[in-house]
Predict the 3D structure of the following.
Amino acid sequence: PSSTYFARTASAVAFVSTSPRAAGMRASHGSASNCSAGNGIGLVALAAGHDVGVDLELVAPWSAAVLHEGWLSAEEQAAVSALARQHRAEAVTRSWTQKEAVLKGRG
């Protein structure tokens, strides 16, 4: 998929993922939509000829426990651990939003 980092606010990260649609797959009208919302913020994406997935997540305070939840690869865990502590919360939130947007876009 083609993925695009979409936005970052003081408290949230949004991510959009698109991939070309194969002929005859999914919506017959050739368009797709996806949405995500949380804490008073909403995101809607529309695409023609592409599947689309979006995710919007609040950036939670950093906790090392996230490294052991099972959704980060060993390489991602090492990369996050190598970051300065003040950058870790945004990094794991960005990773989560990317993964969820891709999964939602692929159906």
The longest strand covers residues 12-20. The two ends are 13 Å apart (CA to CA). Helices lie at 74-82, 85-106.
